[in-house]
Amino acid sequence: AQEETEAALEEAQAELTSLRDSAETSEDDLRAQLAAALAAKARAEREASASLREAEERAALLSTAERELSDAEELAADSRREVESLRQLVETLRSDISTLQSLLDVAAEEDAAAEVQIQALGQQLNAALARA
User: Fold this and answer.
1) Which pLDDT band holds residue 10 (cuts at 50, 70, 90)?
2) Is 39 exposed, middle or buried (0-12, 13-18, 19+ CB in 10 A)?
3) How far from each other are the two terminal CA atoms of the chain, in whole angstroms?
4) How many angstroms separate the CA atoms of 5 and 16, rounded?
């Protein structure tokens, strides 16, 4: 019976040793898994931070582009208003030039008529002088 007890004791000790080894292996595996999980978490946090920075940079660039577009649209509107103002000014100048040309034409006709009258009076004066 003592041999059976010793055999059972040795078997129990072997099983205990096996369980301890298994527990240590499981503990090492758990530590490795924990380390891997922590490393993955740290990587994910870095990637999330990088993505956030990129999103913030894109938002800043978009905001700048929107401001520049707004400025360009405002400049274009100002340019259109200026072109319209210049178009109206040119139209006014054309009208003024047309009026001046009409006045010049009338003055030229009056000068021509006055010249004809002066010639006629000169001929009459010469004829009167020739008779006298």
Assistant:
1) confident
2) exposed
3) 190
4) 16
Query: Taking residues 70-88, what's their average pLDDT?
Result: 98
C-alpha–C-alpha distance, residues 49 and 55, integer Å: 10
Assess whether pLDDT exceeds 80 at residue 20. no
Q: Could you give the CA distance from residue 28 to residue 89 in angstroms, rounded to a whole number?
A: 90
Helix (H) or strand (E) holding 132: none
Taking only Cα atoms into account, the Rg of the chain, rounded to an integer number of angstroms, comes to: 56
DSSP H helices, the chain, are: 2-131
